[in-house]
Amino acid sequence: MLPSLTQPSLLGVLLLLSVSNLLQWENVTCAPIHENKTEQGDVSLKDLFDHAITLSQTTSALTTEMRKLFFSDGFSANMFKKFVLDFFKDKMYMIKILNSCHTFSLNTPETVEEARDISFEDFLKMILSIVHSWNNPLHHLVTELGGMKGAPDAILSRAKGVETINSELLENIMTILSKIHPGLKENETYPVWTDLASLQAADEECHFFALYKLFYCLRVDTYTIDLYLKYLRCLLVKGDICSSLEF
């Protein structure tokens, strides 16, 4: 039996460990948030963050379910297990491939010192960039799965769910930003996903490898988004979520 076929790769685990250090930062520079700002409009910032976290957790759960299905269903299991075996044979190749997710181009903090200088607003923009950058790949994922012979309905339905929730999460985060910084113009530059040609390739192995990489990157990013949101919510409210986080 292949080990850890449905678990995050080593790179994913290391990323999560580094992100979890967010919760240990002290004196993080935050944009001023006044009481009238948090409660203006129909929904408070606290409620918006709670909803965003619910959305991110649902996305993470659906992504995990899809990845498990790809490793267990006859439609894709043999190909996905082959890729894992290939990685075990060539660790440098594994690092190169799994370190090439399109969102890794974002300028994220590499040290605790750098992270302390990131404002509340800039953290939200970082999350917004990650979420926005998945609009295109998720759209093409749903399209390609819908046209693939033998693709299980269980996978397709979950992919559609992730696409829908990602759009809702994007709107939610933009609403949060508008409360913190009214009149802020949306950033028009986001990480570009460049694997469409591989996803649409006639070659079966190339096609399935694009799916494998997409699900790996999506899983890493859904975890990252969830952790960032929980951290920002913790800064904002300093409530029970701070003691209930599990990493």
Automatic annotation (TrEMBL):
Keywords linked to the UniProt accession: Hormone, Metal-binding, Secreted, Signal, Zinc
Stretches that traverse the bilayer: none
One GO cellular component term noted in the UniProt record for this chain: extracellular space
Signal sequence region: 1-30
GO biological process: female pregnancy; mammary gland development; positive regulation of cell population proliferation; positive regulation of lactation; positive regulation of receptor signaling pathway via JAK-STAT; response to nutrient levels
Main location as per UniProt: secreted
Record: residues binding Zn(2+): D226
CDD domains, sorted: prolactin_like
GO MF, one annotated term: metal ion binding
Record localization: Secreted
Protein origin, superkingdom: Eukaryota
InterPro entries with a match to the protein in the record: 4_helix_cytokine-like_core, Somatotropin/Prolactin, Somatotropin_CS
PANTHER family: PROLACTIN-7C1 (PTHR11417:SF29), SOMATOTROPIN,PROLACTIN (PTHR11417)
Family the entry assigns: Belongs to the somatotropin/prolactin family.
Name by which UniProt lists this protein: Prolactin-7C1-like isoform X1
Record organism: Cricetulus griseus (Chinese hamster)
